[in-house]
Amino acid sequence: MTGTFTATILTLYPEMFPGPLGVSLAGRALREGGWACEPVQIRDFATDRHRSVDDTPAGGGAGMVLRADVLAAAVDSVADDRPILAMTPRGRPLSQARVRELAAGPGVVVLCGRFEGFDERIFEGRRIEEVSIGDYILSGGEMGALVLLDACIRLLPGVMGAASSGVDESFETGLLEYPQYTRPYEWEGRTIPEVLRSGDHARIAAWRQHQSETDTRLRRPDLWERHEGARVCSPSGARRTKDTTS
């Protein structure tokens, strides 16, 4: 392994990569060697003449299941010190904290599911982290892998312009990001909040914090509950008072 963040994607559709990651900031970083994309065809590890990668579910049922023996051979061919993640709706929800951990490492191996999913024994026989990007079903793990990789790549050194761009955003502090505005000052009778034009950085920071807390409480009560719990359990043992500047 080199020092470059390397993404190896085990998939039945390697032509889907880099896909949208080949354009914009991620694409520029890829061309400049800031990260590497290595799609691998799972079917190459099949052992029969039909190159079979799946079979019918044990116990009956609809669809097909990816075989553990074929998956294990594919995983073993690329395994190194990088974490191996499988994209599956049965996995733990992907968080910004986990994304930051992955982006700080040497890269990832991503296993993309298809059909009815994976033979469960692949997770018993190999150290693979199951990851979900949301409570919905996609046709396969490739779209989830693109989401995961985009989240990681944008945090790599030099990919985004401003060093603070990846910090002052939704989820980085456990809250949704505050509302953003830009010119023109007035649009269809709606104006930019006056505090943002005041030049008073303390007032602006207080307003943004208040907006983040309010929006999180109203739009994502699950995040708000976790945020409040984290504040109550802080080392100081004291709950921080809310800023109410408007």
TrEMBL record:
It is an enzyme of class 2 (transferase). Its EC number is 2.1.1.228. It is found in: Cytoplasm. It catalyses: guanosine(37) in tRNA + S-adenosyl-L-methionine = N(1)-methylguanosine(37) in tRNA + S-adenosyl-L-homocysteine + H(+). Keywords: Cytoplasm, Methyltransferase, S-adenosyl-L-methionine, Transferase, tRNA processing. It comes from the Bacteria. GO terms for biological process: tRNA N1-guanine methylation. GO terms for molecular function: tRNA (guanine(37)-N1)-methyltransferase activity. One of its GO terms (cellular component) is cytosol. Its main location: cytoplasm. The keyword Lipid metabolism does not apply. S-adenosyl-L-methionine binds at residues 113, 133-138. The keyword S-adenosyl-L-methionine applies. Residues 8-225 form the tRNA methyltransferase TRMD/TRM10-type domain. InterPro entries: Alpha/beta_knot_MTases, tRNA_m1G_MeTrfase_C_sf, tRNA_m1G_MeTrfase_TrmD, tRNA_m1G_MTases_N, tRNA_MeTrfase_TRMD/TRM10. NCBIfam families: PRK00026.1, trmD. Specifically methylates guanosine-37 in various tRNAs. Homodimer. HAMAP family: TrmD (MF_00605). Belongs to the RNA methyltransferase TrmD family. This is tRNA (guanine-N(1)-)-methyltransferase. It comes from Sphingomonas liriopis.
